[in-house]
Write a structure and sequence with these properties.
alpha+beta; 2 domains; four-stranded mixed sheet; metal-binding (chains A, B); nucleotide-binding (chains A, B); ThiL-like (chains A, B)
Amino acid sequence: MTAPGGPLGEFELIRRIRGMAPAHPSVALGIGDDAAVLRPPPAGSSTVVTTDLLLDGRHFLLDECGPEAAGYKSLAVNLSDVAAMAARPVAAFVAVALPKRSAEEIAEGLMAGMAPLANRFSLALAGGDTNAWDGPLVVCVTVIGEASPPAPVLRSGARPGDVVLVTGPLGGSILGRHLRPEPRVAEALALLEAAELHALIDLSDGLASDLGHVLDESGGLGASLDAHSIPIHPDAERLASRSGRSPLDHALGDGEDFELCLVVPPESAASLLRSPPPGVTLHRVGEIEPGPGIRLRDRDGSTAPVRVRGFDHLGAGGEAGGHAG
Amino acid sequence: MTAPGGPLGEFELIRRIRGMAPAHPSVALGIGDDAAVLRPPPAGSSTVVTTDLLLDGRHFLLDECGPEAAGYKSLAVNLSDVAAMAARPVAAFVAVALPKRSAEEIAEGLMAGMAPLANRFSLALAGGDTNAWDGPLVVCVTVIGEASPPAPVLRSGARPGDVVLVTGPLGGSILGRHLRPEPRVAEALALLEAAELHALIDLSDGLASDLGHVLDESGGLGASLDAHSIPIHPDAERLASRSGRSPLDHALGDGEDFELCLVVPPESAASLLRSPPPGVTLHRVGEIEPGPGIRLRDRDGSTAPVRVRGFDHLGAGGEAGGHAG
């Protein structure tokens, strides 16, 4: 059916997406009914569900990055949340509000950004909702995954004495990297197999803020981080040269790195650092302590509290990349 | 944590929602981690997933209806989709973009609209995503449900000779009723128990359009509807007095009635009409035929094709209630 307002109606768009969506054995029925139907996860497994809503002007600038990047990021950040449970993605549901003036072109760009990720991670596009309006582009993605024991790995399992590791260099993602996060799905599954994971989170709000969530959810613990051990991304250096803040400050405070932060017992940390799973990079950044708060330890052993300047999605300004000032 | 931009940050809001959310035995972990964790559905059951994105200016007019009605409608339309599979709702995920000027007030209004529905249907609010921006209110709700055999009931099972029934009067919901749909969850479950349901859909796009989906998905069938049997809502009469269209035209074409349309074999229809399940109203409106298209039959036996003027979410104008012209 052709829509009155444009060359491509909702039903035609849905038909096209239906044709593009890869199959997944857990999806009994995808796009085309009132709801999708999923088969139960394998015996003993549980289902994880995550949803993220991305806004033009806030999480991306459509005029600068184009719809393909917006589509990629919208799906990738949800896959990152599934990775943060050490789960395996199964199906995505994509709801959009498309700017009316170029709804069809944007819809196709979004799909072009999502399809390669869906294929790489064997993820079905199992449903969604398509709207056009006079407002900016809105993309809301929900991803369902399957967690096989000992997953899901929660934020709440950290214990004093545990070691804190991250999977890559941090900071300055707003220079562009935030549009192309690499969902650490395979890395999380490999780590789950290789070590006892006490806690796992993806770095969306910034290391200090996200580690803070882990500490809060683990019963009000604290952590000490080694200033010289925090892997600093070249983007953090570049950004520091104009922001007046230090590269370390960016590595600790900037959001949207989408690396994993894992908390493991010391013996697991030693073994992981000695022989990390193939393809997984690991940096030891500090350890969990009983007293609340995050402290930064200098080479000389002196410590100072870390001021959390993570990303508050509700209060932050309109800056794309979403860093609260 | 208090947000820089306002009195209530995302984390505080999430904490509050967490406190309001009813528990559900299938939700192992709700708000507060990277993803929610659901237990597998009861043996033999499957999981249904549906998502709907609602926009200020399109699905509701926030300045006129207020955030409580917007919250109610956003959740209710998703529950209606779960009902349309004859499934039982389990958990909702609510992602919002809140207008910055009054983010907190709107968030509280949305929750006030959703909480009674969540409680009535024993639905957990298990996750979500909160953003504030300079744009209009956007609410994206995903609901997960459990379908016990013979559910889920799909759109695709209609057969020639089957009877088409609806659960209530149709048309004119744009006069206000579209904001307060009654999700027919209990009705669908009662019908599932009482009869052999070949196909089931909720009337969101309009009877002609939604029945058209059933006919398409059932292999290109058709239907004849009895003009004098279609239950016409008083709102359709009221709207007709100013629209220049007939009340029947509104009953056939208007969207967002959110009644159920069911397709059952003749013997089930007879038994359902003789003794409907308690609390369920049923109207016989026509029957399925092998030839494609929908025909409207007059009292004198003459027939005319029904022109589908359903709701196309992508192409339709900015009218709240969303009727394509």
